[in-house]
Write a structure and sequence with these properties.
The chain is mostly beta strands. The chain is built from 7 helices and 37 strands. β28 and β29 form a beta hairpin. The radius of gyration is 26 Å and the shape is elongated. The protein folds into 2 domains: 267 residues, TolB, C-terminal domain (Neuraminidase), CATH 2.120.10; 279 residues, 4-Layer Sandwich (Purple Acid Phosphatase, chain A, domain 2), CATH 3.60.21.
């Protein structure tokens, strides 16, 4: 098998499957954008810029903001926002969508991601009395890590689950380490000089910190046990706030001198730098002094997309089990499953139908789906289910109004009289079909949808990998199949060497062996069907186990796919425990 357990995505997704440091060694991300805080029109804002100094862009954060930090897969930006209620941690996508508060404040800041991106470590409290906390990145499970009368701040979380932070007593500051699970902090080095701004390398083997008196600090590379240190800079002024490039070869940092503040990049390898030119083979200046830029973070880029999928999601807000959106017992767990998705560094979310019960009314979408899964709406591509059409009694207007916009004919959910469309996720071609056949002129060989599918497959004949998604499954160990209506779609997809079909409708997870449209096992060309109706509504059983069904489990959670060029990893994971239910790797035809 080719080395496809190469990405941080699977380490991020599968908790204990691969140590993060090992995953980093198997695939180093590329160096993406650099985000930093700067002055603009009298307030602090966040900009992004390419490492070569081009394409300066303002990141929309909705207020005065600083301390940006890119997530491990580079899809989200964590930052501190300041306002009348103090300072809180916020998260956004780079285009300004998905903006949400992570903490309530009033004195939170200096946040950094865990290596998986599922948690955040930060400093809380007034200056001089701060403590280190961690919180799950969906905003739940806040935990305090340090208890000290001193000032604990500037945390950094390593790939080996050690958190480095600064402990300040009076005018003296030193770097300490504490296990991410908590424990007794220990000092990193016995150096007598002040040490601030620790930042772990991507591998977790070393960290860079600033050492020296204020105004005369330089950067040092220190081993993770503190036994050895190598000086990186030896220039007049203050070098602080370092951040590593995702590939571990460079550092971006803030240089202050004479009231001026700039951001520089430098290669780690080599002797200590004694001057900071505008540009050289080893050093590059990223900003001028006018903006007073500071607090840089470097985006990981080039990692394969991580996609989550599930259907049968949000309860009717009038349900006796709704419970304000939190659910009761084994019902209405849309908030639980959406919290799980918020922890992941996703490129896309596939909603596999029956997103809103019982009848997909627009007002119900706003009251139930939107406060839960709607927090990921910028990432969602959906297909309609039977409840979007009220089991045959409506035209799906509420569904299309929600995903496309009220009265809008076409949009992310396709044309409102069709509900089928296609799009690409990197090298993958994804086809979204409508299995509510009676609403779109049927699903037979000569139906409009199947003619469109034939043309779409022909137009993308060169696609390396192809995935199709719709609501009703053709093969199922439950009692809710498509009754053969989607067989023409299966025939075309099989003939076109498609690789994956994702369905829902059954409120459980089921994985089938690769098979033909007639249900014969075909390891060479067969299509793997994965059913993920685990989005939160309820759970079903398995009254009719099928011969090619390999895994059957009923739980609330989601299916996640890491889409490589020529292969894919899948993982089904429980939202309540984080436990992996099923996982594996497939190769595209």
């Amino acid at each position: 098998m080719p080395s496809r357990l190469k990405t941080l995505a699977l380490a991020s997704l599968l908790a204990a499957a691969v140590p993060v440091a090992d995953a980093w060694a198997q695939e180093r991300p590329k160096n993406g954008l650099i985000a930093f805080s700067a002055q603009r029109s009298g307030t602090r804002v966040i900009f992004s810029r390419q490492p070569n100094g081009r394409r300066l862009r303002l990141v929309s954060t909705g207020g005065r903001s600083d301390h940006p930090a890119f997530s491990p897969r580079g899809k989200r930006l964590l930052f501190t926002r300041h306002g009348a209620a103090g300072a809180q941690l916020w998260i956004t996508y780079l285009d300004g969508t998905g903006l949400r508060a992570l903490t309530a404040g009033p004195a939170d800041g200096m946040a950094q991601w865990s290596p998986t991106g599922e948690e955040v470590v930060f400093a809380r409290g007034p200056r001089g009395r701060r403590e280190i906390y961690r919180i799950v990145s969906d905003g739940t499970v806040l935990r305090r890590l340090t208890y000290s009368p001193r000032d604990d701040h500037s945390p950094s979380w390593s790939a080996n689950d050690q958190i480095a932070f600064v402990r300040t007593v009076g005018r003296r500051s030193h770097v300490y380490l504490i296990p991410a699970a908590g424990g007794t902090p220990r000092r990193l080095t016995d150096d007598k000089g002040d040490e601030v701004s620790p930042a772990w390398s991507p591998s977790g083997r070393t960290l860079v910190l600033a050492r020296g008196r204020r105004g005369r600090r330089d950067l040092y590379l220190v081993t993770r046990d503190g036994s050895r240190a190598r000086r990186l800079t030896k220039v007049p002024g203050d070098d602080t706030e370092p951040a590593w490039s995702p590939d571990g070869t460079r550092i971006v940092f803030t240089h202050r001198r004479g009231g001026k503040r700039r951001i520089y990049l430098m290669k780690v390898r080599g002797k200590a730098i004694r001057r900071l030119p505008t540009r050289s083979r080893r050093v590059r200046r990223l900003t001028t002094s006018r903006s007073r830029a500071a607090l840089p973070s470097w985006q990981p880029a080039g990692l394969d997309p991580l996609v989550a999928a599930a259907g049968d999601i949000a309860c009717d807000p009038g349900s006796p089990y709704f419970n304000g959106g939190l659910g009761i017992g084994g019902y209405c767990k849309q908030k639980l499953t959406s919290d799980f998705l918020l922890r992941l560094d996703l490129s896309q979310v596939l909603a596999l139908g029956d997103a809103q019960y019982e009848d997909g009314e627009y007002s119900k979408f706003l009251r139930s789906f939107h406060p839960s899964w709607g927090r990921l709406k910028p990432l969602i591509r959906s297909v309609p289910g039977n409840h979007e059409y009220d089991d045959g009694g409506s035209d799906g207007s509420g569904y299309f109004d929600y995903f496309n916009g009220p009265g809008v004919y076409t949009g992310p959910a396709g044309d409102r009289d069709k509900g089928y469309y296609s799009f690409d996720i990197d090298s993958w071609h994804v086809i979204a079909l409508n299995s509510e056949c009676q609403k779109i002129g049927g699903c037979g060989p000569s139906s409009p949808q199947i003619r469109w599918l034939s043309a779409d497959l022909a137009a993308h004949v060169g696609a390396t990998c192809t995935m199709a998604v719709w609501h009703r499954p053709t093969f199922t160990s439950g009692g809710h199949s498509d009754e053969g209506e989607m067989r023409p779609a299966w025939d075309l997809l099989y003939a076109a060497n498609a690789d994956l079909i994702l369905n829902a409708h059954e409120h459980y997870y089921e994985r089938f062996a690769p098979q033909t449209p007639t249900g014969a096992v075909d390891p060479g060309r067969g299509i793997r069907q994965l059913t993920a109706g685990s989005g939160g509504k309820s759970r079903f059983g398995f009254p009719y186990p099928q011969p090619n069904s390999q895994v059957r489990r009923a739980f609330f959670g989601a299916l996640a796919l890491t889409l490589h060029a020529g292969s894919y990893d899948w993982s089904a994971r429980s939202a309540s425990t984080g436990r992996v239910i099923d996982l594996g790797t497939g190769i595209c035809h």
